[in-house]
């Protein structure tokens, strides 16, 4: 059985969060360079960043849970 397959959803969530944070960081930089830092674009990017941050935390929790379950299974088998 390939236990790495169980980590795939968690790793994908972390990857998507990283891509989203990179994208929103560019939006924040662009908005702050071009206009009022309180602009709608800036607010939207900050809110999206918080969402991506939570998505990344959720992915980490999935990976940790898989790691703990794998460790438990290995302890049971030994």
Which value, in Å, is the CA radius of gyration? 18 Å
Average pLDDT, to the nearest integer?
A: 88
What pattern of helices and strands is seen along the backbone?
Answer: HH
Q: Helical stretch count?
A: 2
The proportion of residues in beta strands is: under 5%
Shape verdict: rod-shaped
Low-confidence stretches: none
**What is the tally of beta strands?**
0
How many structurally independent domains?
1
* Helical percentage: over 70%
Q: Distance between termini?
A: 16 Å
Q: What structural class results from the helix and strand content?
A: mainly alpha
Largest beta-sheet details: none
What tags apply to this protein structure?
83% helix, 78 residues, mainly alpha
What do you see in this structure?
There is one protein chain. This protein has 78 residues and is an all-alpha fold. The protein has one domain (8-77). It has two helices and no strands. Helix 1 packs antiparallel against helix 2. The longest helix has 38 residues, at 40-77. It is rod-shaped.
What is the secondary structure topology, with strand pairs?
Blueprint: H1 8-34, H2 40-77
Give me a quick take on this structure.
The protein is an all-alpha fold.
